[in-house]
Amino acid sequence: MKRTKVVDALCCTDFGKDITVKGWVRSHRSSKAVDFIAVNDGSTIKNVQVVINPEKFDADMLRGITTGACIRATGKLVESQGKGQTSEIQAEDIEVYGLCPSDYPMQKKGQSFEYMRQYGHMRLRTNTFGAVFRIRHNMAIAIHKYFHDHGFYYFHTPIITASDAEGAGEMFQVTTLDLDRVAKSGQVDYDRDFFGKKTSLTVSGQLEGELGATALGAIYTFGPTFRAENSNTPRHLAEFWMIEPEVAFIDQEELMDLEEDFIKYCVRWALDNCKDDLEFLNKMIDKSLIQTLESVVKESFVRLTYTEGLNILQEAVNKGHKFEFPVTEWGMDLSSEHERYLVEEHFKRPVIMTDYPAEIKAFYMKRNADGKTMQGTDVLFPRIGEIIGGSVREENLDKLVREIEDRGMDKNCYNWYLDTRKYGSCPHGGFGLGFERLILFVTGMQNIRDVIPFARTPRNAEF
Amino acid sequence: MKRTKVVDALCCTDFGKDITVKGWVRSHRSSKAVDFIAVNDGSTIKNVQVVINPEKFDADMLRGITTGACIRATGKLVESQGKGQTSEIQAEDIEVYGLCPSDYPMQKKGQSFEYMRQYGHMRLRTNTFGAVFRIRHNMAIAIHKYFHDHGFYYFHTPIITASDAEGAGEMFQVTTLDLDRVAKSGQVDYDRDFFGKKTSLTVSGQLEGELGATALGAIYTFGPTFRAENSNTPRHLAEFWMIEPEVAFIDQEELMDLEEDFIKYCVRWALDNCKDDLEFLNKMIDKSLIQTLESVVKESFVRLTYTEGLNILQEAVNKGHKFEFPVTEWGMDLSSEHERYLVEEHFKRPVIMTDYPAEIKAFYMKRNADGKTMQGTDVLFPRIGEIIGGSVREENLDKLVREIEDRGMDKNCYNWYLDTRKYGSCPHGGFGLGFERLILFVTGMQNIRDVIPFARTPRNAEF
């Protein structure tokens, strides 16, 4: 008989009909008169209850069906007698696909996330991680749907690169040189490396994304990026996924509209499509989760300049607010703590901060007429701080070259990038969203290692 | 005035209204009485014609508007007098965003693909590559939509890995060790490397994908994979994108149904959503393109075993057909030439080949009861050969361990993978699709370097 997914079995009211479910046992309660087996197949956070008359089945077989075992259950769909579910299954036939020995690491409920991180290959079978990764999937779908519906093209920028993008951070080297041989020979001969030169893993697809946008009009990347920073924090991964849209002919105001519309779309998608999982996380992880998501969708984002933001922070200090990192003078970089103060305490809604001092931002950002500030459009979120970093790009070739030279960068490395300004240059802009930051926000999880299936961090590349 | 995309301007019949388009000049023809500027903004392969009365504009400005320049044109939308387009724009105002010097590498029409590969950052602005990358986008969207609609979760498997997946090929090493220092010190100390051990770029996400499927029920990956093979052919890339669905509780028959339904969905999506681009490619690249795509959607795929396939090939040889690679005996691996003979000449439609000799396939594939063959489900396509490689996976722990040991692989490297069979094992299967192979098929392009924005091949990591 064709398998019915648990998510479909639970909303089916065709009582009396025979159905087959297949899945993993979440719990098995036995009594003399009746056994209850809760079966989950990953299609929903909810389990379907399989009700068993122990007289009809082999006792040894039943005893073997412990938490984590995998079974098929066929039987009659009936209206549930229990609370919180509409239907359950009166078992007529059970097949055990796989038993589960008692050393199953996800056996006990309520294990710490730290414990579960050691079993990254098994934690996927728990309620929390099921919910997190169904939501992660939904956010990816929302992102693709949003951009597709708005005429953006998904654009694959390279992972292995010979360029250093924006000097955004420490890079991993990619090589086919035999390191033992390098050590023995006493020299590094890049001519013998796969690409004939030194190559690394990308830290951002933006510069290549601009090549796409200035040809196809509007593109977005959605791919892995890498930072070889030795940061053991709940905020850092060595391998993470980024979304980087780039749009020709967009100005600063339109870019802010795009950012706000886009991120609200994603959050609304979660509220509309991940109700059961969000309710679970709201109950178990963060009691204010759904309320926070709803308020982000409802409120219009504050738009304020860096200078205005700095004034607010200085006023707060004057009124006695204590920050861990001091609020000094115009030109300082804001920390996550400062951003969160503006969002969580001052405005109580998301902020798009604009017109940062040019010196603290990347070389490709367009300067305002004042010569001091640039046309940035960062989105600051509750709990997260900066969730989106965006800007209009400098489209003037001479200005861009000057900026590169002033910063002591090597112009020759950027010839292909500068060609976009040399040949038919156009005004354009774009932004970057760290996918895992979005997932942290939408799930209420605290540690970034818990929102990616297999985290890569210093000394950790398991599975 | 708000910008109208060229794709929208061309199908707008609201004649007489003022509109603004922005884009790059594809051609500029001048005469005394009138100038025609064809403008493209990447939203469609078609250009919108801007009609100019030269008396109304500065002659120097007009002369500057050469192929590749970027402009804004505002004017009245009128019914086109020319053939092949419905509307055009009578320019009232023109702004030049960026001129285009005469050394613009994409100036001339009809350049070879080889020439254009050297200008990977500029070729995106040509008709052919615009068409290819709009189709590539559409195939990605079709893939996400198909799996989302069928209850699969998008699952990010790791890019940096300490495991060798299936021994599928040569791997790139990823390191933060300073190679110059390694050379000087005369030794490689992996304890000082970022992950504290030797790590590489993934060759496949399948094994981690199985972890997802045996928890969430059905997942798919869609991410970059890497092979450090020194193959300079039109078929090989060092960095390419793979789609790898994995499904719990699927049998061989259902897996074949999934593969056929999935790939037909993608091809149908192209026919339905990429009409203009396909018509262009059908005209310029492959006159049988659309017909081939249509036939794949219409015909049901032949399902035959390796043994039956081999018999057909041997019969062909007996009848005088000459293959470059000899057809020898049962157990030989088929080459692309053999696969294409079956598909293109014998059956004249796609083939799903099953039950290969277990020895020529990977360790994780489920053996049939005969002990000799395995439950494979490869899809063979015209022009491409194998486009999908799939199989039911071995779910029995003991059999899988024996297979690993028989092949001389190190069981300890697979402990996490084997845990899926130890704890609640379930029947499951899946397949892999090389994204660029699909794009080759759907676009009619001949060289895989021309269907990915920035190709990585031996000695080539530009941009």
CATH topology of the largest domain in chain A: BirA Bifunctional Protein, domain 2
- Beta-strand content of chain A: 15-25%
Unreliable stretches of chain A, pLDDT < 50, 5 or more residues?
none
Report the major sheet of chain A: 8 strands, mixed
Average pLDDT of chain A works out at: 96
Shape of chain A: globular
Number of strands of chain A: 16
The greatest interface here is:
A-B, 108 and 108 residues
Oligomer: homodimer
Q: Would you identify the CATH architecture of the largest domain in chain A?
A: 2-Layer Sandwich
Domain count of chain A, please report it: 2
CATH level 4 superfamily of the largest domain in chain A: Bira Bifunctional Protein, Domain 2
Helix coverage percent of chain A: 25-40%
InterPro entries (chains A, B): Aa-tRNA-synt_II, aa-tRNA-synth_II, aa-tRNA-synth_II/BPL/LPL, Asn-tRNA-ligase, Asp/Asn-tRNA-synth_IIb, NA-bd_OB-fold, NA-bd_OB_tRNA
Subunit structure (chains A, B): Homodimer.
Subcellular location (chains A, B): Cytoplasm
Family (chains A, B): Belongs to the class-II aminoacyl-tRNA synthetase family.
